[in-house]
Amino acid sequence: MGRGRKVNLVASFSAYLSRLTFLLVILIVMGCTILPIRVAIVFTPTPFPSLTPTLTLSATPTSILFPTVTRFPSATPTFTPFPAPTRLPSVTPTSTPFPTVTPVPSPTFTATPSPQIKYVVIISLDGLRPDALEQANTPILDDLRTKGAYSAAAKSVLPSVTLVNHASMLGGMSPTKHGIYWNEDNPNLGLINGPTLFSVAHQAGLSTAMIVGKSKFRHLVLPDSVDIYDLAGYFDRQVVNHALKVIQAGLPNVLFIHLPNIDSTGHALGWMSPGQLLAIYEADSLVGEIVTALDEGHYLNQTLLIITADHGGNGLKHGSDSVEDTTVPWLAIGTGVPPRILKTHPVMYDTAATALYALKLPIPPEWDGRPILEIFEK
Fold first, then answer.
1. What pLDDT, on the 0 to 100 scale, is given for residue 116?
2. Neighbours of 292 (CB within 10 A)
3. 208-212 and 40-43 as β-strands: parallel, antiparallel, unpaired?
4. Whole-number pLDDT of residue 60
5. What pLDDT sits at residue 158?
6. Strands 303-308 and 119-125
7. Which H or E run contains 295?
8. Given 56, 86, 101, which residue is the final one in a domain?
9. 128 shares its domain with 44
10. Residue partners of 148: CB distance under 8 A and separation at least 6
11. Is residue 189 part of a domain?
């Protein structure tokens, strides 16, 4: 009886173990079948177009067969690569701030004496500081500086404002003599005290022209001294368009071209600001157009080209005796002018005297200006 009961207990225990084993097998099979459904797919970004998914299992410590996972939508996402962004150029005042363009070809000037100079062209870049040429993108002026006589230390007269200094530049005298002490267009204030570069040249039978971008320049026009006086507009582009027409129609013996934008941009945005550096870059290109027109008209071998400024500036203004306001560039290129850095520092009124000397005309004795003879020395 006791033996039979033990046998039954063993048999029952064996059956229990068999069922438990069977249940475990079923659970294992079910777990393996369910497991892929509960996998969380986490995409690790890789370069397009190849996407390699990384499979990550998330399970709690109390469950091995049924891990806790994060479910994602069953739909398969479609990935479309984004187009590469277009980057705008950055403007940095201390580096080349503007897009590089193909400069207008500038001609080759020779230091070998050529036929007598018959033409003088003066380009005034209103408000240009010489140190701005080292920061702005100026391929034309950079090239011309290697071919001419250059000073980065020419001086304005005082006050360092536009009309007063152009009166000295073109009148050969200091303000106390030429009498221009104002800086606005005011017909009631009269005209410059002569003689001027234009009146001397005109009396000698030479043709003269002024293409300007500010109306107050009419205070510098004496009667019977300027054949063409053209207030072309208030922007560099307008001035140069008119100047090109004058050159193409027949270059006057004395041509003065005034570009106003560098000064007006300085007053609006600040001297040495990115905006003013851009104005200098644009003026540089326009100077290239003028030089090309002279070249195409076969005038260069008989022309002295002077490129300078009336004053500098600091902040939003000028007019003081500071170095920033009174230091300007001065560049002479042309017949018989060897390339060099000038030891002489021209003063504003020396420009008119240099122009008359180049044209073999007498310099009025009352003038303060003296020709910069160093530009013709071999």
1. 81
2. 17
3. unpaired
4. 36
5. 98
6. parallel
7. helix 274-296
8. 56
9. no
10. 109, 305, 331, 332, 333, 334, 337, 339, 375
11. yes
Judge contact between 145 and 166, C-beta under 8 A.
Answer: no
261: containing domain: 119-376
Q: What is the pLDDT of residue 19?
A: 56
Q: What is the pLDDT of residue 20?
A: 52
- Determine whether 235 is exposed, middle or buried from the number of CB atoms within 10 Å of its CB (0-12, 13-18, 19+): middle
Domain boundary among 41, 56, 71: 56
**Which candidate, 39, 61, 42, places its Cα nearest to that of 53?**
42
Q: Do 140 and 284 contact (CB within 8 A), yes or no?
A: yes
Instruction: Output phi, psi for 355, to 5 deg.
Output: -65, -45
CA proximity to 190, closest of 176, 180, 200: 180
14 plus 144 within the same structural domain:
no
Q: Which of 204, 184, 295 is nearest to 244 (CA)?
A: 295
pLDDT tens-digit profile of 129-150?
Answer: 999 999 999 999 999 999 999 9
User: What pLDDT, on the 0 to 100 scale, is given for residue 335?
Assistant: 84
Given a cut of 50, the residues of the chain with pLDDT beneath it are 1-10, 13, 16, 23, 25-114
Q: What is the CATH number of the domain that holds 159?
A: 3.40.720.10
